[in-house]
Amino acid sequence: MRWARRGAATAPAETLPRTAVEVRDVTHAYGDRTVLSSVSLTLTEARVGVIGGNGSGKSTFARLLNGLVVPASGTVLVDGLDTRSRAREVRRRVGFVFQDPDAQIVHPTVAEDLAFGPTNQGVEPAEIARRVDDVLVRYGLDGHRDHPAHLLSGGQKQLLAIAGVLVMRPERIVFDEPTTLLDLANTRRVSRVIEQLEQDVVVVTHDLDLLADFDRVLVFEDGRVAADGSPAETVPWYVARMG
Amino acid sequence: MLSLYLPGTSPVHRASAGLKLAALAALGIGLFLVSRVEVVAGALVVVLAVGVVGARLPGPALWAQVRPVWIWLAALFVVHLLVTGPLTGAVAVLRLLTLVLAAAVVTATTRVTALVAVVEWLARPLRLVGVRPARVGLVIAMTLRFIPLLAERAARIREAQAARGAERVRLSVLVPLVIAVLQMAHTLSEALDARGADDTPVRPVRPTAGPVGPA
What we know:
The structure holds two protein chains of two kinds. By secondary structure, chain A is α/β, with parallel strands linked by helices. Helices cover 32% and strands 25% of the residues of chain A. Chain A has helices spanning 58-64, 87-93, 110-120, 125-138, 154-166, 184-196, 231-242; strands at 21-30, 33-43, 47-52, 73-78, 81-82, 94-97, 172-176, 200-204, 216-221, 224-229. Chain A has a six-stranded mixed β-sheet with strand order 6-7-8-3-9-10, sandwiched between helices. A four-stranded antiparallel β-sheet of chain A has the order 2-1-4-5, with helices on one face. In chain A, a hairpin with a 2-residue loop joins strand 4 and strand 5. The longest helix of chain A is centred in the middle third of the chain and has 14 residues, at 125-138. Chain B folds into two domains: 11-110, no CATH class; 128-194, no CATH class. Chain B has helices spanning 11-14, 17-33, 37-54, 59-66, 70-83, 86-109, 112-122, 133-163, 174-194. In chain B, helix 3 (37-54) packs parallel to helix 6 (86-109). Mean pLDDT of chain B is 85; it is low at 200-212. Chain B is built from nine helices and no strands. The two termini of chain B are 37 Å apart. Classes of the chains: A alpha/beta, B mainly alpha. Chains A and B meet through strand 1, helix 1, helix 2 and helix 3 of A and helix 8 and helix 9 of B. Chain B: Residues 195-215 are annotated as: Disordered. Chain B: Pfam families: CbiQ.
């Protein structure tokens, strides 16, 4: 377990493993409020958790990973692609699931919304239909194909948001507090879905139980990585820290 | 239209969205060109037949579309009764009723994406002035998606205010609603980027970009 930030990575981008994300000396601010300070790390693990108090910088960190936020200074590389200059390619590789699915669902009905991402990617209509059918069945939404999205339950909306990312076939998915707005049953349901994903995942969460089997957990504090290690090392430390 | 589509395999469902919208437009024009009550009443019967028999739509689904406007139709008839006469009033009411039902049949048998595709096709000439038809379609689809969502958020704010004793101050809903809409718009813009809606590279965010942003 590491208690301070790692040294700035210096390896050239071309040597990164296929699914590596490298954050090099990143600092970011909103107005006068600095939310990330000199963060440097490399993510190669399949399951990475990100925890920290409110305002600690973890959501901004998550948004760095697929180019939704471009750092004010420093560099973020995904498989060697700079999020500053190759954002479109990065987003094809890294999907993003937001805390509030209502802000992520853009079409009025379930199947139409699922088709939105792959349509933007230029996927053939027949292939889009096949992918949509697949995720509808996989997440128990096949009975809701033509239903208005706003009439789904909170858990169904979050599953729809996840499915909307999966149909784009990303290699890595970033989740920003995916269970925060859900009840216990839906939290468990979404947690199981995340556990069963084949893709590498980075999950920002306050649900510490979700991280039990993760490979690595980052603890953010005041815009810095305060702790970095296995769940067994970092989670008890974080809990003690929170009092 | 927000949630009116009723899945089906009827010939009306299978007909192209463009054809249905064209027929709806033609019906609208035609109804305002004739003033004979038997013709307008005949059009109403035809529309009902297309909806109930042709599209196999349940009666309650069609009535649900008429229910919000019947009071206005009744008021219109009363005004005509006082100003012009019962026959003119009947024509005016039947005309509007026919159009409401015809629009209900179209929306109940056509997916939003199909309707949006027609709008995009119609918007193609706007390319000449730099408008992207796909963007026009996306805006329409998102409008349909977010109207019920905003209504829900407004209801939540009203409930929160009522719980704190502000039941009668309806205008005070606006400020928190606008703030909620702005926050949602920010997240929505991120979601559109994340889902590939914009294929242009993002601009770097400067440290002085403003206070809005996630923690």
